[in-house]
């Protein structure tokens, strides 16, 4: 049997499986579960347990970004990392900043 705490987590947690890699994406802000207004701009933390990851990656998600705020030199057909595409499946059109960490997932 699964204990109640695992069925109903106190913090938002997502298990990610993209391109054969697994990791945990989570937030330390409990309001992300209860208040849709918090979903405008929020941090997410990523732990993959892989050797390539030396620490917890801190991502910044902006769900209200606009196309004109993107870098004009960036190719619109550029492929995004699979984790960003997974995040966009929950928050369509969101931009994800890796905060100086190279996308390794």
TrEMBL record:
Xref: Pfam families: MINDY-3_4_CD
Highest taxon above the source species: Eukaryota
Entry EC number(s): 3.4.19.12
Catalytic activity: Thiol-dependent hydrolysis of ester, thioester, amide, peptide and isopeptide bonds formed by the C-terminal Gly of ubiquitin (a 76-residue protein attached to proteins as an intracellular targeting signal)
Compositional bias segments (type: Basic and acidic residues): 61-81
Region called Disordered, residue ranges: 58-81
Record carries keyword RNA-binding: no
Span of domain Deubiquitinating enzyme MINDY-3/4 conserved: 2-100
Transmembrane domains' residue ranges: none
Keywords from the named record: Hydrolase, Protease, Thiol protease, Ubl conjugation pathway
Signal sequence extent: none
GO biological process: protein K48-linked deubiquitination; proteolysis
A GO term, aspect molecular function: K48-linked deubiquitinase activity
KW Ion transport (keyword) present: no
Function (record text): Hydrolase that can remove 'Lys-48'-linked conjugated ubiquitin from proteins.
Record-stated family: Belongs to the MINDY deubiquitinase family. FAM188 subfamily.
Record-given protein name: Ubiquitin carboxyl-terminal hydrolase MINDY
Designated gene of the protein: Mindy4b_0
